[in-house]
Specification:
heterodimer; A: alpha/beta; GROEL, domain 1; 3 domains; 3-stranded mixed beta sheet; 20 helices; disordered N terminus; B: mainly beta; Methylamine Dehydrogenase, Chain H; 4-stranded antiparallel beta sheet; 27 strands; globular
Amino acid sequence: MSIDYELDRFIKPLRSKNSQTPNVTFQPRAYQSVQRGINLIANVIRPTLGPLPRVVAIDPIVRGNVKPEILDDGGVIARRIVALPDQDQDTGAMFLRQVLWRQHEQVGDGTATTAVLFQSIYNQGIKYIVAGGNPMQMRSYLETGLRVILDELQNRAVPLEGQQRITQFAETICHDAPLAKMLGEIFDIIGEHGQLEIREGRSRDLEREYIEGAYFEGGLLSRLMFTDPLKCRAELEDAAVLASDLSIQDPDQLVPILRAVIEANLKSLVVIANEISEKALSLLLVASRDPAQFRAIAVKAPTDIGGQAALLQDLAVLTGGRAVLSAAGDTLSNVRLENLGRARRVWATTEHFGVVAGKGSPRALRAHIAKLRAAVERAGDSQARQKIRERIGKLIGGSAVLWVGGISELEIKARTELAERTAETLRSAIMKGVLPGGGASLLACRPALQRMADQAKELDKRTTFRILSRALEEPTRTILHNAGYRPSEYMGKINQAGPGFGLDVRSGKIVDMAEAGVIDSAGVLTHAVHAAVSSAALALTVDVLVHKKRPEMSLEP
Amino acid sequence: MSPDVDQAQDLVYALAASPNFATDGVCFAAHQSGLHRSDDGGRTWRSLFDVLRLEALLSATSVALSPSFESDGAVFAGVPGGILRSMDGGKNWSTALLPPPPPFISALAVSPNYANDGIVFAGTMEDGIFRSGDRGAHWEAWNFGLLDLNVLCLSISPDLAHDETLYAGTDSGVFRSTNGGRAWRETGFPAEAAPVLSLAVSPMFARDGVLFAGTESCGLFYSEDRGQSWQRVAKRNIPRTVNVILLSPRFPQKPDILVLTNDALLVSRDGGRSWSKRGTRAELKAGTTSVVAPSGFGQRSRLLVGLADGRVLRV
């Protein structure tokens, strides 16, 4: 949990006065204050939008010798703003902050786009409401307009394929050519669901390794089981795999399984369990006394709080066996030979074990992966999505490890975080495609909204679509402004050039953005638009602010 | 033929012919008894593994030649547990062992641009696909995304140097790689029609995106969109099992297709709408396993057909 969150819990109650009467703010002050709060957060994040962003320096919460934080990530910047002194303004600021943080958590990028879209819709909307517009009607029309924009974006998205294009896109996210090149190669191989571990490296360079097969956390339970003691590694061929979460105490329980495996002429057995007693381990070592004939090893079941059974299930599908689970009432006495999985090769170290060429049914494996892919789409939060994705990654035949190097520890840490953020956006882009970047694809949605505005008979409807259409210009204007251009000089030229065109702020030329390699992840952009429009629509309906007062609290216990 | 093997069991797993067959008459046959070479268009054969002085029989389960065989003499032969490589047309051999347990090499495919890139692929039963980037000296498994490691056939785009595309037929469908065999993705091939025993990519693949797939029990399929969607070629005309598919070198302008079933050779001159038999039933009754058409499959061109009894027919 972040330090900011902890501070939130303590500081906010301290601000309140010791009174039980709630503070209530009515219009017009409620609109003005919420708008100020929203504009404050949005204006802090605006400079970070685009390929030539400006950075935001944030004073540390605890002063001392700590330097200000230099940030260019809208989500993190929003998170650092803990509270505003004015309670009414704070309500608006915290509303937008929450929207941006959720965007950051769910897709890892697009927060600055969300902020500028939200700000533009809210500011225009408030102006219209104050002039007599109906906020509830506006909300409904904003949602209609949102569907139109999302359809337009979806229709324009094209797949992101090939190492060169993935690299090009990665560079637009991380602005680090060597890192982009490495991630381009990795994602071209592992695909959108592939397992990628990003670790802090020990050298100055970036390094990567591809690992064949699937591997899990959970190492050998006895060092006597190494087949290569120098490498601290055991390697088995043609292995039977018992995937369980049992605690095996009695060695006699293992005897029927060992006998069945040996009688089936299998060369080796891997026992996966949560715990195995010394006596049971000794039995496996005795059974391996002639390794040329037979070898048995025991490894710790993969540890994943709340997810161990699922990982064992995956392992069972991969190897064609059955997961033997204590929660299902399974014991070793009801395990038969056909319940054991098979693999061409199994390896284990003190920390991990891996399965290469599991002999599970390919059809069952494909069906299982298809189910997991559908579950990724349905998963509510990023952590759940991440876990399912890791499970898919283990099943697709290989994984990659990227070691991120740098000159100093600080640089390595920052670059590792950048690599993680870029990887998350790449996954989304490979999964959902890409769109012309620099705001060009949002500009291309305006004609559809304009047509709807022209056809609308009601004023609220017409105005709402126009507000949305104007808001879609805002990301482009902001990108131009941040890069040092005057938006008013270029917007006309961009509009004349046609859909998909924009100003490449690096070259200063108006180009077909997709052809020039200026692209956005369709997943990130649609999420950003969805978050901005639906949240702004809700914010516009806020009429009264109520601040509850809590008794004064002390930091002392 | 090796004296240890009964002719009735000396199955011909695969055939390969020199790109210059019309003039040099060189062809190779991968038998259960080892690899054999003919220098007279398939009339007489001699064993190539004799030079290895092996104590036990070594089966050759697949064979492939370099597209520039005439100049480089490169021959690759899949044997249990590894791949043999000769750079002099089969006189001398070097061995590359694959990780144990010994895989069965079911298919070998050489890059059309082998002279420059030195890339060779090996499909295996149970261990997926191995790739060599140094003319077969070293091999590495590249199975990212290959959800079925039982590979039955491989087919490479003629434009591999640019599109880096190749296909693998497996027990459960067709997989495609668009990065030179380093990662694989499922195609839209219907899983219920698998296993896929044979694949053939159009010589104009870069332009037309056409490929054919022959199955074990559901006949012949084709795709016009690089494998995203598939249609079955008329059910009535094609038997259920399609072991090999050959396309005319001038396909689709000359839409000739030849398919080898379990006991027949069928030729279509109209892109698969109608089919006629080639060869007599008596000739092929032993069961057919492989075919090559080194001079095309026009009416007068000779085909080499491998039989289950170890013979290679000139049809």
